[in-house]
Amino acid sequence: MAYQYIFGPVPSRRLGLSLGVDLMRHKTCSLDCVYCECGKTTLLTLTPNAYVPLASVKQELAAFLSASPDLDFITFSGSGEPTLHSGIGEMASFIKTNFPRYKLALLTNGTLLHREDVRSRLLSIDVVIVSVDAATGEAFRKVNRPHPELTLDEMEAGLIAFRGMFKNSLWAEVFLVPGCNTSREELARIREMLKRFRPDKIQVNTLDRPGTESWVAPLENEQLKWAASFLQSAEPIPPPGRRPAQGSDSDPSGRLLAALRRRPLTLEDVSHMLDIDAPEALGRLDEMVREKTVKRISMPRGMFYTVNTI
After folding, report:
1. Are the beta carbons of 245 and 17 closer than 8 angstroms?
2. Residues paired with 129 in a beta bridge
3. What pLDDT, in 10s, does the model give residues 134-190?
4. Which one of 30, 103, 203, 292 has the fewest beta carbons within 10 angstroms of its own beta carbon?
């Protein structure tokens, strides 16, 4: 099967070996974050809708999971904000009913949690990771470039309401962009905001993969550690995992391309994802570069590969 809506499994720095489920058309989101690895938002919206057909997503999941692959998580993530899909609750129920051995995770920007209908769709998910990158309007506009009708107060109210009803694990990720949200004043405001909605875990992150805007740079490691300490009980996101994928692999090149459409990967990432040695992974990537379906981008952590949109 040529997968259109699932990708990976990919080695996640937070979730181990993660099979991605992409419920959004590229690139549909409520924010246009300067650091996003998926590129610039082309449809900026706050309106939930059935952006992709759930029947097709279920078909792909059933085909892939029929081989009982060894996964740490199935994760709603990918080309946009997953909670914009009005069927995310139905999708979570489908997985929990038919494949109960797998834990579910959600990567969300939290911008729709002020809506009761959206909050109720997420209650069966095991781990929800929400982004909290700003606590002042200026930083919110610089880093996240939100939909014009979205306010930071509304977003915070949604986080507090969700914390009050969500009984599973709620994590917060603070993505730090030098010169935008790294001042002591901004971090102090973020710290107070985090205290008000009480996440179970707080992680700080900075640029690791190529982002949307070329001027975005990673925060130095010592500064990242200082910010984690300042935010109290926070920790830097750990290095990438190394456990290789197991399971169905009848179309490794197609699976690789599906993953690269959602996130840039290193040679090591590809080797782990496909469970092949580095020379074979490099051969596959070099062939894709020659075909101009993939391009290389140099980053501080090394060379990344991503789809070539030109």
Report:
1. yes
2. 107, 171
3. 999 999 999 999 999 999 999 999 999 999 999 999 999 999 999 999 999 999 999
4. 292
